[in-house]
Amino acid sequence: MTIAVLPGSFDPITLGHLDIARRAASLFDGVIVGVAHNSTKTPLLGLEERVALARAATADIDGVSVEVVDGLLVDFCSRRGAGVIVKGLRGGADYDYERPMALMNRSLTGIETVFVTGDNALSHIASSLVRDVARHGGDVSAYVPDGVADAVAAALSGGSAAG
Ligand code: PNS
């Protein structure tokens, strides 16, 4: 039984993330989408909102659950009995970004990171671009799961989509 953790900021979750979650679900017995804090970023969406949006988006994928990653990712993996970290790659820049984290995580506990190639048709989608397009008034609904564009718009206007 191999459980994988698919970690990220998910600020917000995109169709690219969803593609990787589906591919990971077909490879492992269980996949935990781990919504984590990236100390180099200030998120637009609050942690609980990112979790709620990821839960709604992955609700129809068998074997996928969503949790908050509190603290070190490798400690979370140990607590959950997860033997693998899974990450999506859109291209070489992603690999360059991910490689030091994969090596650090392996150095910390020996956990391996498995890289999954995403759908090329989604390779232009990034949470940072979604936020930027939305911030400038563009329509991001083609790049994110249902409900996410409204949540991003609400956050940008200082409110909450739930309210
Ligand atoms: O989507 P992101 O922001 O690129 O994801 C980065 C993330 C959240 C996976 C990384 O910052 C992380 O693992 N944070 C949890 C704390 C931790 O374990 N840091 C050391 C990573 S080597």
Summarize the structure in short:
The chain is of the alpha/beta class and 163 residues long.
Bound molecules: 4'-phosphopantetheine
Helix content: 40-55%
Placed side by side, the strands forming the largest sheet appear as: 3-2-1-4-5
Encode the helix/strand succession as letters.
EHEHEHEHEHH
Shape: globular
Helical/strand content category? alpha/beta
Distance between the termini: 41 Å
Q: Your description of this structure?
A:
The chain is of the alpha/beta class and 163 residues long. The termini are far apart. The model has no long low-confidence stretch (mean pLDDT 96). It has a 5-stranded parallel beta sheet with strand order 3-2-1-4-5, with helices on both faces. It is globular. It has helices spanning 15-27, 47-58, 73-80, 92-109, 127-135, 148-156, and strands at 3-8, 30-36, 64-69, 84-89, 112-117. The structure holds 4'-phosphopantetheine. 4'-phosphopantetheine is lined by residues 7-9, 36-38, 41, 69, 72-73, 101, 104-105.
List the helices and strands and how they pair.
Blueprint: E1 3-8, H1 15-27, E2 30-36, H2 47-58, E3 64-69, H3 73-80, E4 84-89, H4 92-109, E5 112-117, H5 127-135, H6 148-156
Parallel strand pairs: 1-2, 1-4, 2-3, 4-5
4'-phosphopantetheine binds at residues 7-9, 36-38, 41, 69, 72-73, 101, 104-105.
